[in-house]
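Technical note accompanying the year-one report. For the benefit of new consortium partners, we illustrate the data format agreed upon in the data management plan: each record pairs a sequence with a structure-token string. No post-processing was applied to the example shown here.
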Amino acid sequence: MTNVLIINGPNLNLLGSREPEIYGTTTLEELDAFCVEWGRQLDFEVSTFQSNHEGEIVDKIHDAAGAAGAAGIIINAGALTHYSYAIYDALVAVGLPTIEVHISDIHGREEWRSKSVIQPACLAQISGLGLEGYRKALEVLAEH
């Protein structure tokens, strides 16, 4: 099976309770389980990771290219999407196919949310499909 790493950034640990009108009521644990099952259907072994800390996310990206042996990354960097050049640099450095995912439509929200500094390091950006964006991201990796 091909390994795929899904990374969720700051505040995504609060899925299910944080602004449910925007992010829904599904918890991160439930989303992780969905992603594992969706991945299994595509012959992927999915591992998930969440952190509120930029450096931990950078370390996890580095690890994905090393001993973890991931074939691809799906990342929802949360607010770090809009200003973390460290995450951008890590994605470029490891060179793994990466899909950027956002539950909400970042282009239809506050102006500052519409700019992603990590997008140029990614194969695709999926925004505004809710949790289905993660399934779509797995499908894009499978096609890649």
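Partners are asked to follow this layout when depositing records. The mean pLDDT is 92.
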